[in-house]
Specification:
By secondary structure, the chain is an alpha+beta fold. The protein has helices spanning 16-25, 27-32, 65-77, 80-89, and strands at 2-8, 34-38, 53-59, 97-103, 109-115.
Length: 118
């Protein structure tokens, strides 16, 4: 099983608790992993960002990284705060966010969800 830590670009204005709720309410996402927030170790892009980390835990070995990325992007794009930003900037929806993966020294995978520049 694999676990991912997720951080969000502050420009997306994502409340990690909202992401967790949206993820866990989606049958497709919930079958892949359980999402939760962890504010104990949270450090984000800057001090104005929300200080919580989102965790996806228990991802089965057979689930591809691309599947996880696609589900994260879909969940992010459908959040109300991101929808507001989408209507203001009107980029192509699938190209609105990107995910960068950083392997931590302890083997943890950190995913950073960023808003693409257009």
């Amino acid at each position: 099983m694999t676990d991912y830590q997720i951080r969000f670009d502050p420009r997306l204005e994502i409340n990690p608790a909202d992401f967790v709720a949206a993820w866990n309410n989606s049958p497709d996402c919930k079958t892949v992993a359980e999402a939760q927030t962890d504010s104990s170790a949270a450090v984000d892009f800057d001090s104005s960002a929300l200080k919580a980390l989102t965790l996806l835990g228990g991802i089965a070995i057979g689930v591809t990284t691309n599947t996880v990325y696609d589900l994260i992007k879909s969940t992010v794009i459908n959040l109300p705060t991101v929808q507001k930003t989408l209507t203001q900037t009107l980029p192509v929806r699938s190209e609105f966010v990107d995910i960068q993966q950083i392997e931590q020294p302890d083997g943890t995978k950190l995913l950073i969800v960023i808003m693409k520049e257009h």
